[in-house]
Structure formats: C-alpha cells, structure tokens
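Box 4.2: Ligand-aware structure prediction
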Amino acid sequence: MLRCFDEQEDARLRGQELNLAIVDAADPDHVWGKASLYDVDLDEARAAVACWLAPHARGRGVATRTLRLLAQWAFDSLAIARLELTCAPDNVASQSVAERCGFVREGVLRSHIRFKGERRDTVVFSLLPGELR
Ligand SMILES: CC(C)(COP(=O)(O)OP(=O)(O)OC[C@H]1O[C@@H](n2cnc3c(N)ncnc32)[C@H](O)[C@@H]1OP(=O)(O)O)[C@@H](O)C(=O)NCCC(=O)NCCS
C-alpha cells in the first residue's frame, strides 16, 4: 500500500514531486520503504521514478509492484508520456526491477552526479505508455 507524506504536501500540490511511503497493507504503521515521482514536468509530460526498500522488505516483489502501480498512475492520471529511472551502474537490483517492469535501458550518462566526494556515472532507463509489464 502507498501513503502520502503529510510534510511533502506542498511539493505534491505544486505538481513537482510525489513522495510516498510503502507500507504493509495489514499494518499501515509498518513502513517498508519509499517511492518517489520527481522531476515532474507536466508541460513536457515527463517524470522520473525511484524506489527504496528497507533490507527486510527486499527480494519479494515489493519494488516491482510499487513501480508498476506508480507508473500506471503517472500514465493514466498525469498523462505522462516518458517516465525515467536512473541508478548506479552497479545497482543490479534496481536494474532488474526496471527491466521486469518494461523499462528500456538507454545508456550511461558519464560523470553524471556527485557521489561521496567523487563523480559517478548513471544508467538511464525509460518507459513509455504501452510498455509497462
Ligand atoms: C532497488 C530495490 C528497490 C529493489 O528491491 P528488490 O527487493 O530487489 O525488488 P523487488 O521487490 O521487485 O524484488 C525482486 C526480487 O524478488 C523476487 N520476487 C518474488 N516475488 C516476486 C513478485 N511477485 N514479483 C516480482 N519479483 C518477485 C524476484 O524474483 C526478484 O528476485 P531476483 O532479483 O533475485 O530475480 C532495493 O534493492 C533497494 O531499495 N535498494 C537500495 C535503494 C536503491 O538502490 N534504490 C534504487 C533507486 S531507483
């Protein structure tokens, strides 16, 4: 189950970002992780998506289900035409989840971000309406 963070309401109302807690449907106080729709540009119909899970919640399909729900909602409710997912080149779990959902790997953005005092490459994936699996 996905729940909105009250303190993130301003960003949601500005149409820029949606940050959600991933919680156990049977015990909503039990938080499994967080999912975000960010860099939302409604004029260009683009957004990016990301997901983080606590170690105890990994390896049982929670991230895959979360990304599918959020992507479907972004396509249906926000008319998003391109959804991006980026991650570190060695983040195998994240890339597996992206490909399982139908995201297409587009390539590597070299020296893309600052990370722990160095610069780091980023792998970029995209998902278009109709490609969600
Ligand atoms: C990236 C991350 C979210 C992926 O979580 P995850 O638990 O590997 O992903 P899922 O919840 O979809 O689980 C997938 C695994 O569960 C298994 N699984 C079990 N039931 C499943 C189901 N119904 N549907 C999909 N997968 C299922 C799959 O076989 C898969 O295992 P595999 O990767 O060995 O093939 C998690 O590792 C994480 O939070 N990492 C740290 C933060 C991070 O890097 N975030 C990425 C930013 S985008």
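In the box above, the bound molecule is coenzyme A. The CA atoms of residues 15 and 40 lie 7 Å apart.
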